[in-house]
Amino acid sequence: MFEKILIANRGEIALRIHRACREMGIETVAVHSTADEDAMHVRLADESVCIGPPPSRDSYLNVAAILSAATITGADAIHPGVGFLAENADFAAMVAEHGFVFIGPEPAHIALMGDKVTAKEAAQELGLPVVPGSDGAINSEAQARETALSIGYPVLIKAAAGGGGRGMKIAHNAEQLPGQLKTARAEAKASFANDQVYLEKFLATPRHIEVQVLADGKGNVIHLGERDCSLQRRFQKLVEEAPSPALNADERDTVGRLVVEAVEKLGYRSAGTVEFLYENGEFYFIEMNTRLQVEHPISEAITGVDLVREQIRVAAGVSLGLRQQDIAFTGHAIECRINAEDPFTFTPSPGTVSDYHAPGGLGVRVDSGLYAGYTVPPHYDSLIAKLIVHGQTRNECLMRLRRALEEFVIDGIATTIPLHQQLIGDNDFINGEYDINWLEGFLSRTQG
Ligand code: ADP
User: Fold this and answer.
1) Phi, psi of 425 (to 5 degrees)
2) Residue 50, exposed/middle/buried by CB under 10 A (0-12, 13-18, 19+)?
3) Which atom of ligand 1 is closest in space to residue 284's alpha carbon?
4) Nearest Cα to 218, choosing from 125, 313, 287?
5) pTM
6) Where are the beta strands (DSSP E) in 115-253?
7) Residue 236: Cβ within 10 Å count
8) Inside any domain, residue 124
9) Does ligand 1 come within 6 angstroms of the Cβ of 228?
10) Residues 196, 335: one domain?
11) How far apart are the CA of 150 and the centre of ligand 1, in A?
């Protein structure tokens, strides 16, 4: 097992990884920008190294500084966390070339799944159902027309290198197609320096359902059930729950099995998530995330498995000790992402937290680096806390979530807590009846 792990990230996720290391008796090295000197992940780590000024490109994305920090502190392995370098195949390769272990999958798998066109081709070969669309990239307007005609309008034009919902354009009919194709290509080129696009059938009312897997690269693969992440605003997830209120036991079993078979065939190692759109009882692969995800704690809550510990163990070459039959799914879990943002306008709200009190009690988990007196810097993602609540039933989970949100005090800055309070009082949410468009509608209804 590793003796020392460098955590190449910040905020609540750095803290999350630190906690797993601590429990395993592994020392931690925090890296931080000058804006994060007082951050909790830096305070709690055994050692810390400043890797640059506030902008991410000069610090948390500064590969040379991170590798130097690992060298001078004598770390054995590097955990990339979520975001920043977590899905950068070149970084994963460089970590290995410098003699450290990358806590994640093989660089080739990161690269394969990082390009949407190759990912979709791979998914198809691995036996996963995909959204009907073009075979690979679209090379001409004529090819786009022909494909759109065969799959039927409306169609979505997506960037091969896309991410975060950027570079997607809808064409409702043949007249709109050439214009939207041009715009999508131009946006893809500007955002990702890659103008490859592909075509997909546009699904009107799907849910976003993703399956969590764990694999050791030695033939042992298990799934930890699904998460429903349909509550999104501008393609950003706000609330996630597990299990999905939309699936029955058969569907759960079928999709879990399909994903396990696919991941096994791929020869994948580490934690990963296979994302689907789900509509009218059918699953359609959209992408695979080759890393830990922000919403991983809800899967931990319903299975009792520590995903980060397992990630570290398999990276160290230990075989997965868990078999599918060892995984018992218990109760229901919901995560609320609490952002330093105005709950109505979503304007970022960095600043000093004057008072802080986290909720507790049975079934309540808060992953956050906040404390009274801490200043949320303006340079990074606005996620400041995750409230994860577990109950024996979905109803119990909702009751507990309501009281936990009431208890939560974050003063001095605006947060999305009031929005979550409003959301969990809504009947559609209470009944689990929502698709990926629902939250935008709710926001325009309630916040005009
Ligand atoms: P990104 O990597 O940009 O997040 P995804 O392919 O994961 O791109 O899609 C992001 C979101 O876009 C999905 O969660 C869903 O809300 C929407 N989306 C993607 N593909 C389709 C589709 N074919 N039809 C309808 N909505 C889609």
Assistant:
1) -95, -5
2) middle
3) 23
4) 313
5) 0.96
6) 155-159, 169-171, 197-201, 207-216, 221-233, 236-242
7) 16
8) no
9) no
10) no
11) 21
- Rounded Cα–Cα distance for residues 76 and 192 (Å): 33
Q: What rounded mean pLDDT belongs to the chain?
A: 96
Whether residue 378 lies inside any domain: the answer is yes
- Are 291 and 262 in the same domain? yes
Q: Residue 154, preceding bond cis, omega within 30 degrees?
A: yes
Compute, in angstroms, the gap from residue 158 CA to the centroid of ligand 1.
9
CATH number at residue 19: 3.40.50.20
Which residues does the chain have with pLDDT short of 70?
448
State in Å: Cα 353 to ligand 1 middle.
35
Catalytic residue among 227, 252, 291, 337: 291
Range of the domain at 239: 207-447
- Written as one string, the DSSP assignment of 270-292 is EEEEEEEEEETTEEEEEEEE-S-
The verdict on whether 257 is a catalytic residue reads no
pLDDT value at position 448?
A: 59
CA of 322 from ligand 1 middle (Å) equals 32
Give the residue, out of 273, 286, 290, with the most ligand 1 atoms within 8 A of its beta carbon, to mutate for a pocket test: 286
Q: Are strands 351-352 and 332-339 parallel, antiparallel or unpaired?
A: unpaired
